[in-house]
Amino acid sequence: MGKPYDxxxxxxxxxxxxxxxRGPILRKEGEPRRVRFxxxxxxxxPFVIIHDYSIGMLTNDLxxxxxxxxx
Length: 71
Fold this sequence. Notes:
With 71 residues, the protein is α+β, with helices and mostly antiparallel strands. It has 2 domains: 8-40, no CATH class; 41-71, no CATH class. The chain contains 3 helices and 2 strands, in the order H-E-E-H-H. It has a two-stranded antiparallel sheet. The longest helix is centred in the last third of the chain and has 11 residues, at 44-54. It starts with 6 loop residues before the first helix and ends with a helix.
């Protein structure tokens, strides 16, 4: 999209990926207002990384900075 977005801007999409009509690709874990999203299938994470890297959406710099963030 060309600009940074915070979680509230795309949280509806994350919740949609937990529903049957969109997958479910993700599952919710944790308490309300402290929910974390995890892939249902652990192989989806490397698939998404490889896919986004192959289409140029993910760069080495972005991938490196994301992997070294706490949490």
